Every structure is written in C-alpha cells, then in structure tokens.
Amino acid sequence: HTDTTNGVLAAAKRAGITPPPPVLDQRHRDLITQLMNAEDAQFDRTYWQQQQQSHEATLALMQGYAANGDTPQLRAAANATIPVVQM
Fold it and tell me: Of 25, 52, 71, 79, which has the fewest Cβ atoms less than 10 A away?
C-alpha cells in the first residue's frame, strides 16, 4: 500500500496536482465499525470479505482510470498499480 500510494502521489505531483488529505467516508467508517464489532468467530471472515470487496473495487477504479483517465501521469500510475492489486 505504501509503494502504490507513494507512486500515485508522485504522479500527481508531476502533473501539478495536490491531492486533498485522505478522509474516510461514511461507508468506510461503517465497514470499520462492522469489523470492530465482529465476534471473534466472525472477525476473520468479515475482514476477508471486506478486503476482497475493497480490492475488487480498487481494481475496477484503476482499470477504468488507466483506460479513460484525463491525466497521463495518473493513468500511468493506475496502470502500474493494476498488477499489484491483482496479485
């Protein structure tokens, strides 16, 4: 995560873009609450399901931006991130 985040931030900087600070939206706060409230027996399953769904959404986002993004530097960063997320 650190490497891909740093890659995207560097690409944004090269493009002259200053990204806003990261903020968790309500959906992601709810996921964390769900995980925190999971019973011991359900914790691993809940975590796994959340991670799988999040990585699938991230992959779709990266693939979409790599194909149709409007900033060449960020398209390249998305393209570089795709194999990492797939792995």
Answer: 25
